[in-house]
Design brief:
Layout: H1 2-11, E1 15-20, H2 27-36, E2 42-45, H3 49-60, H4 72-77, E3 89-94, E4 109-113, E5 141-145, H5 152-165, E6 171-183, E7 186-191, E8 200-205, H6 210-220, E9 224-229, H7 238-255, E10 260-264, H8 265-270, E11 283-293, H9 300-313
Length: about 325
């Protein structure tokens, strides 16, 4: 979602500054840097996001986001001028920023995992939730993620649960749309999703919720899907490679052909070279983009318009 929002501002002539902790090796930050490297987006890493932001403002300066070229008509009507300087920062996006109370914000967007909306009901470290459900009252927008992987009945139940906490909370739905694979030995080599058809696949991942990744692979239609999961942000070790290789050899024996290893982009960016040692087997990265799904007469365009509304009313 951070990348989705950043790209929306970039497309409207506004340079975003993304502030992220770069937690546990910075795999998510590196993925953002790779995806946004040819845009005006800037990425600041560090636990003290206020200090990081101050350094970026000192280096690049800032601009009135209402004067950006993407909103020329509105800007001209308000006498704000047109055009933008892509070096100057026009908006700041906090990654995982809800708990960062020290920084004021104009818009709070909360993501809810539709496949496991409230975890096990416990906060960290007993569960995956950082804050109690009551914290939803601080949200301006809620997004039910992985909405394509649950039933309409489940979707409506989650929305109802959200509205019970905050009755006027606008709710949208999102999904990760797989687009292609690339080979870890040659990032420029892109393969269509159909390359996984009729293949035995071994999903290897160390992410927060592996179920959605595995389900995405299953929906492509391979012959068989196996999985090896590690804890979130885990760095693959030598003993892990041995276990992966053994599983691959078992799959090769069972299906009479070499299986295909698939990892997420986050796993790839954590350590791009670690799986190269599986030289007998091909290792591919699944690439996906976030999409806002139509839900209850609300569309992706409606979500983008809310971003524009906040931008144009910012004072």
């Amino acid at each position: 979602m951070v990348e989705f929002i950043a790209r929306e501002f970039v497309e409207n002539g506004i340079s975003p500054l993304i502030l992220t902790r770069g937690y546990a090796g910075g795999d998510e930050a590196r993925m953002l840097q790779r995806h946004l490297s040819h845009t005006s987006a800037k990425i600041g890493l560090g636990a003290n996001r206020g200090e990081v932001a101050a350094r970026f403002f000192e280096r690049y300066g800032h601009m009135d986001p209402r004067a950006a070229s993407g909103f020329d008509k509105v800007s001209q009507a308000r006498g704000l001028g047109t055009g933008s300087n892509t070096e100057k920062i026009g908006v700041v996006i906090l990654d995982d920023g809800m708990q960062h109370w020290r920084l004021l914000r104009d818009l709070e967007v909360i993501m809810v995992n539709g496949m496991l909306p409230w975890g096990n009901g416990h906060l960290l470290p007993r569960g995956p939730m950082r804050e109690p459900k009551s914290a939803l009252r601080r949200a301006d927008i809620a997004i039910i993620h992985h909405a394509d992987m649950i039933s309409d009945r489940q979707l409506k139940a989650i929305e109802l649960s959200l509205l019970q906490v905050k009755s006027d909370l606008p709710t949208f739905c999102s999904r990760l749309a797989p687009s292609h694979f690339f080979e870890v030995r040659n990032r420029s080599l892109k393969l269509p999703l159909s390359a996984a058809s009729d293949m035995a696949i071994l999903c290897v991942c160390a992410i927060g919720f592996a179920g959605a990744f595995v389900r995405s692979i299953e929906k492509i239609g391979p012959r068989y899907v196996d999985r090896i999961e590690f804890g979130d942000h885990h760095f693959i070790q030598a003993e892990d490679i041995g276990m992966i290789r053994q599983r691959l050899e078992e799959l090769e024996h069972n299906f009479g052909a070499k299986p295909m290893v698939v990892v997420t982009e986050k796993d790839y960016d954590r350590d791009p070279g670690v799986l190269l040692v599986l030289d007998r087997f091909e290792v591919f990265v699944l690439c996906s983009t976030l999409r806002i799904m139509p839900f209850a007469d609300r569309t992706e365009e409606d979500f983008k318009n809310r971003l524009k509304d906040v931008q144009m009313t910012h004072d």
